[in-house]
Amino acid sequence: MNQPSIDLIASFLSDHTRPGASSSQIAGSVAAACRGIEAALAPVIGRRGVAALLGRSLYLTARKHRWIEGMTEGNQSDIDIEGFESSIARQTSADAAAGGQLFLSTFNNLLMSLIGPPLSRRFLRPVWTSSLSGTTPQDPTP
Amino acid sequence: MTTQVTIHRLPTGVPGLDDILGGGLPEFSFNLIAGQPGCGKTTLAHQLMFAMATPERPAIYFTVLGEPPLKMLRYQQQFDFFDSEAIDSSVRFVNLSDDAVAGDLERLLKRMGDEVMQHSPAFVFVDSFRSIVRGSEAQVGAQGDLQQFLQQLAMLMTSWQATTFLIGQYACETDANPVFTVADGLIWLHQSVERNSMVRKVEVMKMRGQPSLPGLHTFRIASAGVSVFPPASVAVATKADAALAALAPRLPMGVPGLDDMLGGGLPRGYSLLVAGPSGSGKSILAAAFLSEGVRNGEHGVIAAFEQNPHRSRNRVVADLITAGHVGLVENRAADLSIDEIVFMLLREIQRLGARRVVIDSLSGFELALAPTFREDFRESLSNMVTALASTGVTVLMTSELEDRYTDLRFSPYGTAFMTDAIIVQRYIEVESRLLRVMAVVKVRASAHSDQLREFSIDADGIHIGTMLSGQEGLLGGQPMKKRSPDPDSARSA
Question: Do A44 and B69 touch (CB under 8 A)?
Answer without folding.
Answer: yes
